[in-house]
Amino acid sequence: MTEFWTDVLTFAETTTARVGAQLLNEFGQVTAAEKADGSLVTQADRWADEELRGAIAQAFPAHGVLSEEVEHIFPDQDWCWIIDPIDGTTNFARGVPIWGISLGLLYQGTPVFGYVHLPPIAQSFYGYWYGTSGLSGPTGAFLNHQPIHASTDAPSANHFFNLCARSTSVLQNPVPCKIRMLGVATYNLLTIAAGIALGGVEATPKIWDIAAVWAIVQAAGAAWVPLETDPIFPLKVGEDYSQRSYPTLVVSQPELTETFLPLVRSVANRSANPSPPTH
Question: What is the pTM of this model?
Fold first, then answer.
């Protein structure tokens, strides 16, 4: 499968670079509308979604697609791409230079490859995580083609723990790290893969927020801790994923689960009655 994975990486890299270059021309200059779930959308989101779906159809015609803006039903195909055309639309619309394009490739319903490109800061993350899929190929997680790995440090006041806008209830407890709120679900968790932060929580991410990073953070040695009992993957053919959220804790090493999990237990309950999103 070496040639296949080379094609996948090349496609993800060139396509997100092309789409990202156009999005940079509109960054901070677009009008955002509010969707039914309270999140923002711009014409740039819709354009990028269409471009990405079209590129996948041309390069991988046998693969399915699930996307934030259009395709919400998981298809009956072994291979499926899950795309978020702009993760961090609020940042994008308001001129904050942290937002990205996310591509996750699933095999039989579970992510095995993820690619996230953040055009304003010229960072591209990718990784391979085969789990029990039976697939083989390249391994590891990378930032701009350089290997990355989650931190092995112990928590301290000089380390970071990331929150999302819906997880501020965590602050009712003493947190053994400095708090950061980045406004982009993918980047929130990717900083853990890169060894920048020791942990992070997302209260209401959708499947397109987590499909790519699920593979990358685990390939980097971090631990993914769902805050609900039902497993996230594999996804189910024919199911509509437009409304489903997946409250999640990610920590840089499994041993830190017992440190941070008690602080974020309320997040899962809050996700059932969310306030308007800010991503």
Answer: 0.93
